[in-house]
Amino acid sequence: MRLASAARLLLAALLLLGMALPAAAQKAGWPGDFDYYVLSLSWSPSYCESAGQKADPLQCRRGGPPLGFVVHGLWPQYKDGWPQDCRNPAPRVPEATLAGMLDLMPSRRLVLHEWRKHGTCSGLAPDAYFTAVREAFGKVTVPGQYRGVARPMSTSAPEVENAFRVANRDIAADMIAVTCEDGRVSEVRVCFDKSLAFTACPAVDRRACRAGRITLPPTR
What we know:
Shape: globular
CATH class of the largest domain: Alpha Beta
CATH architecture of the largest domain: Alpha-Beta Complex
Number of domains: 2
Order of helices and strands: HEHHEHHHEHEEHE
Structural class: alpha+beta
CATH topology of the largest domain: Ribonuclease Rh, Chain A
Strand order of the largest sheet: 2-1-5-4
Distance between the termini: 79 Å
Helix content: 25-40%
């Protein structure tokens, strides 16, 4: 009897442990286990203004090339929420791969951060992940009015979103969102499925900017 009772207790404990593991794993994130991607395009002047003295000098230095929308990252997402830091330690990014991304992501620190936090959740090796970043970015046309902005521009999230949709006819209203911070345009977020085709993402839209008028700082 005692052996049978002990066996039942052990079985119950194992079942409880088995039930707990998926929840813990879901929270931590598993490489390749996600539903879609978000390509985040950051308005570089907004980042430079908000970061101030802490801004990355490679991205925000005076006298450098004027930067407008740059790639913040390509983020694996769940239908609600997202995984992050899926491999610890993260595999090393080859120097050639890192340097080759600086035309899209003008900060070595940003490239490495995005790989550790988001890229490791893609299930891809570093080279393949950053190839996907470049491919996704290549499918989005940045509207001409956001190139070489000489003075602060008063706008709104719907206006920015509409400009992107006019320039990208395949992006529907539920596939894109604009975020803001401290009264400035922060990011444009475009959603892709795992094959890098545009896809709907209601959860991203729910996190969009709800402010009225916002500012697009001039490019540097």
